[in-house]
Design goal:
- It is a single chain.
- It contains six helices and ten strands, in the order βββββαββααβββααα.
- The chain is an alpha+beta fold.
- The strands form three sheets. It has a four-stranded antiparallel β-sheet, with no helix packed on it. It has a four-stranded antiparallel β-sheet with strand order 2-9-6-7, with no helix packed on it.
- The longest helix has 23 residues, at 191-213.
- It holds the Pfam family Seipin.
- InterPro entries: Seipin.
- It is found in: Endoplasmic reticulum membrane.
């Protein structure tokens, strides 16, 4: 099974957004021994010897998780945009994806009842007034040049001036996974079942071959009564 299909590459990283920029962004290096250095105008990377992590033209699955406080600012903010970009060693963008994001709506009555029911847990610190949002970024493909870093950017709507319309965030994380081809993905998802059935089929085939080739040894024929030699 290890020779037929390899384990898909997966990694989970915490995101630390730089709020000193007009559009806060976080850089996540995906290649070992590579550091990402970002200046105010250009993107540069200090790199050493490294091997390519993702094969060319391979589809990628990327999920962004955001934890936002249910503050008046975030509720009044409305929709904001989350953009993901794959960067090469010289800072070129090989693939990008963008999705809108917004807090789930709750009316004032629902919020009052929910706060009343959770008041003891809120006061004790076992619960908090937050919402967890999950975004699945689609359409990302590895280019011919290897991807060194992934850049995640928070973008405001067009009606806001530069630097405004950015949500308040407690924490954020990114889950990165390489999508296997269809055939390999099916084998990987059903690897235990395929392993068991393949083992059973091989065992049955070996047993049949053993019965056919070694039948006289396993089931020896006895002599019949008519072939019993008679005495003088």
């Amino acid at each position: 099974m290890r020779r037929v299909v390899e384990e898909p590459i997966q990694m989970t990283e915490e995101l630390s957004f730089d709020y000193t920029k007009t559009s806060p962004e976080a850089l996540v290096p995906i290649v070992p021994y590579v550091g990402c250095l970002v200046s105010s105008e250009e993107f540069s990377i200090v790199t050493h010897e490294f091997r390519r992590l993702v094969p060319p033209n391979q589809k990628l699955q990327l999920a962004i998780s955001l934890t936002l406080p249910e503050s008046d600012y975030n509720r009044n903010l409305g929709v904001f945009q989350v953009r993901v970009e794959l960067l090469t060693i010289n800072g070129n963008i090989t693939s990008s994806s963008s999705q809108p994001c917004i807090l789930r709506f709750k009316s004032s009555h629902i919020r009052f009842v929910e706060t009343f029911l959770k008041s003891m847990f809120l006061l004790a610190g076992y619960s908090s007034e937050t919402q967890d949002l999950s975004l699945r970024m689609r359409g990302l493909t590895e280019g011919t040049k290897p991807t060194i870093c992934i850049r995640v950017t928070l973008e405001q709507r067009a009606e806001f001036r530069p630097g405004a319309g950015i949500p308040e965030i407690y924490s954020a994380s990114m889950k990165f996974e390489v999508e296997l081809p269809f055939f390999k993905r099916m084998i990987w998802n059903w690897r235990k079942t395929v392993f068991i059935w393949t083992s059973m089929m091989l065992f049955i085939m070996q047993l049949l071959i053993l019965l056919v080739c070694c039948r006289p040894v396993i089931f020896p024929r006895g002599r019949s009564n008519g072939d019993t030699p008679r005495g003088p």
